[in-house]
Amino acid sequence: MAYLRRAATALILIMQLFTLSNAHNITKILAKDPDFSTFNHYLSATHLADEINRRQTITVLAVDNSAMNSILSKGYSLYTIRNILSLHVLVDYFGAKKLHQITDGSTSTASMFQSTGSATGTSGYVNITDIKGGKVAFGVQEDDSRLTAHYVKSIFEKAYNISVLHISQVLTSPEAEAPTASPSDLILTAILEKQGCKAFSDMLKSTGADKTFQDTVDGGLTVFCPSDSAVGKFAPKFKALSAANKTALVLYHGMPVYQSLQMLRSGNGAVNTLATEGNNKFDFTVQNDGEDVTLETDVVTAKIMGTLKDQEPLIIYKVDKVLLPREIYKAVKAAAPAPKSSKHKPKNAEADEDADGPSADAPGDDDGEVADDKNGAIHVMVSRSSVFVLAIVCLCFGVLLM
Ligand SMILES: *[C@@H]1O[C@H](CO)[C@@H](O)[C@H](O)[C@H]1NC(C)=O
Ligand SMILES: *[C@@H]1O[C@H](CO)[C@@H](O)[C@H](O)[C@H]1NC(C)=O
Ligand SMILES: *[C@@H]1O[C@H](CO)[C@@H](O)[C@H](O)[C@H]1NC(C)=O
Ligand SMILES: *[C@@H]1O[C@H](CO)[C@@H](O)[C@H](O)[C@H]1NC(C)=O
């Protein structure tokens, strides 16, 4: 009986895994046809692929390698290419069928360029118009839209979640191509200092990690800045670290991808950091706790206190503690079990949560065993026997699917 119940639990777990996992993977979809390899490459390089995979209703207007040359030959920065390509991601579903059945023969639909706020007015809208002979034309919405591209074929469709359509030309506009204040003009340490993160900024500079952070901005960067008081309290311990550990600890406060609060909220899983390298995982778990978002390193649990700066591709959060990676502190972690901390404390207890040492916040229920079981997608706590059952159920699933 017990086993049956476990199997049922495992089955539910698997089903959750299915629904939680990304429903589609644009990189994989486009990889099937080498004609789209350049477009595909730039979707990944600009991190638009992550955005596409995250959305549940989306249309991607793909162009082939020769069409991509028209913008690549202009030597644009990656950031400008991101703006242009984000015009090719429509936040609505257009399968080939819907394309040919547009009410009144013409529609105007928002692209990701519009929805990410980079566009002004309607310059992030795409005009889709049925023209003579069953052709469908595309253009960027303007007073007098020039419909510069046309529909070629459908590459992939999964109604009504993702549709990938081949169009003849790159869609672009002066606004998308405009030299924007390139994010590399965003000087991270200067921003941090202005936003009340002087102490953390000093840590970045003293270790030289500021360069790594800065180099990452273009492709997307999320920074977790511990409050000045948290850094102050941690200072003696920081001083005691080796140079390499210091750098790793500082790098641990950045993620090489732009993650809005909403994205963090919907994520709930292990995330890599700038310190992640090969076997040195240096990851932590993002966890929702009601309205709060916490970062659990297994050594400390820090809470996001607010957003200091959100200018895609850069976002900076303030956190209440220095993040201590288990790769550096697990060994010296106090073994004394502490009552389940942080979660159910009244809000005004925050002051003492500012404490940041491992001993001050040793989560007694979060031991090595659990840490090793983390599967990278969700924080599942399963005993060894249910892992076994899970494996068997997986096998059965596999057989069924065959
Ligand atoms: C999507 O597919 C590509 C290529 O198959 C793979 O490298 C990548 O890890 C996948 N991404 C996700 C989020 O599964
Ligand atoms: C799309 O562009 C065409 C050509 O400029 C125009 O006639 C049509 O009204 C536009 N459609 C919409 C919905 O604005
Ligand atoms: C497809 O989209 C619908 C909403 O449009 C959503 O409810 C559903 O979960 C999506 N399916 C997958 C597999 O993501
Ligand atoms: C720092 O790094 C060394 C070697 O890389 C490691 O052995 C040590 O445990 C680390 N942690 C601390 C707290 O110094």
TrEMBL record:
It holds the Pfam family Fasciclin. The keyword Repeat applies. Keywords: Cell membrane, Glycoprotein, GPI-anchor, Lipoprotein, Membrane, Proteoglycan, Repeat, Signal, Transmembrane, Transmembrane helix. It is found in: Cell membrane. The chain crosses the membrane at residues 381-401. SUPFAM superfamilies: FAS1 domain. It is a lipid-anchor; GPI-anchor. One of its GO terms (biological process) is shoot system development. Residues 23-171, 184-323 form the FAS1 domain. Residues 339-371 are annotated as: Disordered. Residues 1-23 form the signal peptide. GO terms for cellular component: plasma membrane; side of membrane. May be a cell surface adhesion protein. Belongs to the fasciclin-like AGP family. This is FAS1 domain-containing protein. It comes from Brassica oleracea var. oleracea.
